Predict the 3D structure of the following.
Amino acid sequence: MMGKMFIINSPLVFKTVWAVIKGWIDEKTRAKIEILGSSYMKKLTALVDISQIPNFMGEKNNMGQLEADFLTD
């Protein structure tokens, strides 16, 4: 069972296709899918422990914390 799904840094073409197909997806499932732009880290760290976020999604300092510029809106 899916709790929440984030799609990050998606291209404009994906957002356009999503706008068309989301009407065919069950409302309960659609509510679990969230499309985030380039300022995704603040939303992601509110729901996921920083240690579980892969390095390729944001640079971490030597203490395992993400650098501040990834946390801005």
